[in-house]
Amino acid sequence: MDQAIGLRNRTSYAEITPGKNDSKLSYDNSASTIRVFAITSGKGGVGKSNIVINLALAFDEMGKNVLIIDGDLGLANIDVLLGLTPKHNIHHVFQGEKSINDIILDGPGNIRIMPASSGVQELAELQDEQKLFLMEMLEVLEEEIDVLLIDTGAGISDNVIYFNLAAQEKIVVITPEPTSLTDAYAMIKVLHTRYGERHFRILVNLARDDKEALNIYNQISRVADNFLDGLSLDYLGFVPKDHNLPKAVMKQQPVLNVYPDSPASKAFPTLAKRLQAIKPGRNDGNIRFFRHRLFNLG
Ligand SMILES: Nc1ncnc2c1ncn2[C@@H]1O[C@H](COP(=O)(O)OP(=O)(O)O)[C@@H](O)[C@H]1O
Ligand SMILES: [Mg+2]
Q: At what angle do helices 158-166 and 287-295 cross, to 10 degrees?
């Protein structure tokens, strides 16, 4: 990873030159541009995985083709939350036993899921070749995907950093708990100071109402303004604390499906529309672009 990051830091976007006959490699913002969102937090248990599956459903209802990547590669959660029992997962792909298409699962609606493994410790820290391989595999699927949602898992591990760097938009989930704020700040700080990431979107979960959510957002925004230069933290919105969400978890179904009129459920379509409205950046193109961006491939 250090090597990859070192390489990346030495590379500016301008230096990434497509091969002459490489018609697929376009960095323009055409309608086919895939949108890649990383849902991250620092702290665990703040609602990332639930946010990912319900956002996925909201995008699905908007007619988008959605793929979820369970980025907590060694501690799978997404499949459990959806009541799925994958026979094979990303581990089998890395072992060369299965192709990426063999492991992709069909979820609710038209959502597809790339499942992680549970209890495979070596996946907790991907090797550089594996990171590259994963990007290459995603390229195969890219034509069929409009929205890629990555549940990064908790912590500031190598994998979490990797998935954040691969995403166009980094959505940092915070809650009213003080430890959630400090952990989110730590994550933002590392991505900003070590990897030059400047733009994050803050999503407040478990808030009482929008007033409390904005208050929490203002807290992290103030600290970031005071201590980190050139950073922008945008307020994306909030998901209210909702007793139906843990009930949906127990049923292993998205709250949006089982309690569609519940307050949390109502938040997700709005959030998905806001994310959809974000214009792709000048350099946002396709998976191959991220591969180049992460690994400086010529
Ligand atoms: N908006 C919410 N309202 C009520 N409970 C929530 C909400 N979001 C998350 N939870 C609770 O927090 C638990 C952890 O959520 P999860 O999505 O697994 O977090 P993470 O992926 O960040 O570890 C859920 O099982 C649920 O009980
Ligand atoms: Mg999770």
A: 130
